């Protein structure tokens, strides 16, 4: 069976330069994506993490040729997303936020139909659909109408449909939104396997911190249309450092302790009454020495806690707001848009 896997020679399979997209709504310009410079190498599993409205989906829709950039450029699989849309589309799979499958069809028919649309022979289409049904644990549900599948089963079918033509690059827009934790983990497992076993480059968007943390080799944090951090989850967290929280008998002891903590390289110290919080790289290693030093100086610690950072702490540190809180803005309503999507 023919596949669309590409030999990249290790170069980037996605490259954007100043990628920008504006929308006009109620005569106001919305700068959804603002000058994105990005490179993704073959075989990477990348998560775009950010709150609602950060510009994640808009970026994905430009990379998948669904909408055109207002400015800047992007190449996917070596093809320009504007000049060479058809070639880009041949190289990618895309699973959007809505359900792709027609509700009255059976899952198996949907897959076969998509495979035929991608040029597979009847026999190959049937084989490919069987493979995908098995890989996504959908075998026993394959002959039920899509409308009768659970949310998790339907989402897995969506991802299977995105994989019909064995794309070299797969884009997943919020693949696990709306799934219960068990289905979320199951889907993440499939995505991970796809990346590891087939080497498929995967770019997904998520606003689940845990998902970005668990799944992606690389996390690109997006806020207000801009990349504000780009590293492994571990890298992002270790750059921020651990939080060492200490309580003392009184405010004087806390202030004296804060002065000492301030001498630790890279420490950010805040004092509130008798409480001292120290954010410091490798805080768990620095804490015992600090405790001993303070005890020796007659300032014993009444309570000590060392907590490793979460990606939410990273986001909070970068933006001054919590990703969990910024995420409660509800879904974006596109209905009032005055600028349509490219066909
Ligand atoms: N078709 C459109 N017309 C007008 N404004 C739009 C349109 N699509 C997106 N926007 C606006 O662009 C900004 C970025 O939206 P986008 O959907 O890319 O964010 P997101 O990070 O993917 O958020 P979500 O997690 O909710 O999908 C938002 O302010 C949104 O309201």
TrEMBL record:
It is a peripheral membrane protein. Keywords: Antibiotic resistance, ATP-binding, Nucleotide-binding, Transport. Residues 14-249 form the ABC transporter domain. InterPro entries: AAA+_ATPase (IPR003593), ABC_transporter-like_ATP-bd (IPR003439), ABC_transporter-like_CS (IPR017871), ABC_transporter_ATP-binding (IPR050763), P-loop_NTPase (IPR027417). SMART domains: AAA. PROSITE patterns: ABC_TRANSPORTER_1, ABC_TRANSPORTER_2. SUPFAM superfamilies: P-loop containing nucleoside triphosphate hydrolases. Its main location: membrane. GO terms for molecular function: ATP binding. It holds the Pfam family ABC_tran. It is found in: Cell membrane. PANTHER family: ABC TRANSPORTER ATP-BINDING PROTEIN, DOXORUBICIN RESISTANCE ATP-BINDING PROTEIN DRRA. This is ABC transporter ATP-binding protein.
